[in-house]
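ok so i was messing around last nite and threw this chain in just to see what happens. nothing serious, just curious
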Amino acid sequence: MKELKLSIGQKSFDEISNYISENYKESYSLSIYDILGEKTAEIECSKEEMLPAIMLVADMEHDFPEWIGINELTDSIVVGMNFTKGRLETGCSYKYENRKFIKK
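result:
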């Protein structure tokens, strides 16, 4: 997996936006990897919704993303962060719609 370590704080969102712009392919989905629980939440969203979805997870879980990468096996952009609050369930799929996650 091609991975980029992110800066701490708000600057990480600029880095994520640039990474998505430079590496996105039409077939990619979004995966959020919980570093603490070692599981992933799959998010169905468009390219334009990826950054807002990542920002919402960061807000819900009270943590900034630590890294971003591409998993070529699953055709997804993967963001790693610590799910410190456990508000988003891992090991399942969601659809990002109207700034909310809808469990599939």
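not much to say yet. The radius of gyration is 12 Å.
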